[in-house]
Amino acid sequence: MNLRLRSYARHWPTLAPVLAAAVLALTWGRSLPTGMVVLVSCCLAAAVLSAVHHAEVIAHRVGEPFGSLVLAIAVTIIEVALIVTLMADGGDKSSTLARDTVFAAVMITCNGIVGLSLLVGALKRRVAVFNAEGTGAAFGTVATLAGLSLVLPTFTTSTPGSRFSPAQLVFAAVAALILYGLFVATQTVRHRDYFLPVTAEGDVIDADDHADPPSARAALTSLGLLAVALIAVVGLAKGVSPTIESGVAAAGLPASVVGVVIALLVLLPETIAAVRAARRDRVQTSLNLGLGSAMASIGLTIPAVAVASVWLEGPLVLGLGATHMVLLALTVVVGTLTVIPGRATPLQGGVHLSLLAAYIVLAVSP
Asked: Is residue 132 a contact partner of residue 189, using CB atoms and an 8 Å limit?
């Protein structure tokens, strides 16, 4: 029995995505009783942990910054599919879903993942060190994408409400794709060294030195299992969302809280991977994950909903309200001051986390 348990423990990263996918297939589209919600939640947690494991295997095989791109893009593609699916089912009440989800992703990644990574890295080595050139380029792109996609619609006059006109929406979608494509080319080809981890002295670390990279077969297997795990994470999160919605309604909280909870669940694999990288003194890898996820969320979601709006009924509201614009402005200012030195103390991490806490508090109590 002990040998069997040890065998299961050794192979849990392979078993967890398969089990989670099986539970997803059995529960999809069904109303779940309390006992099933507990089971689904356990499978969701296992799928998250296995996704992190397989993402780290792939990252070790392909190296940085390609490894962090794999997890960021994979999560975002599935997140976009979930948004479009919910918008197709929701009608007019889902008009703000894309905006709320994208903004939640920006706040969670730029303040939650970045702040937690800086805090963990600085507490371990007194000062968290990263490459200011690469991080600044990533943060500047995120700020530009957020401004073009989430702030401008509030002030345009062609269409009533915080919406783009069709021509403006096409421009925002094309601009998002071009900026994201330029950033990926910069990160992986022309200036790859800007996005590699650095030592305390500022020397670039071009390879992990703690273990030999896995074989190509193992990396491909992990890539497939990562896709299965991420699909299970998003699908199971959608499955438990009615329970979350009913709990939020029973507590008298705003409906936007549901979007925050779902965003937290979907971004949990990247958060765990970023914290693990920070604990290994790879703060740059953590920042690549956080800012890359924010950028992919905007750069892929806005074009996707622009295309989906052709057949979706109801308005597409993208413009932020005044409170959220203040939080975004604070995030941009604080993030800029954090990035410029290329070094951060626990204070900077705490400041970013306080902004995330303010966002969550205002989501619960507008």
From this structure: no
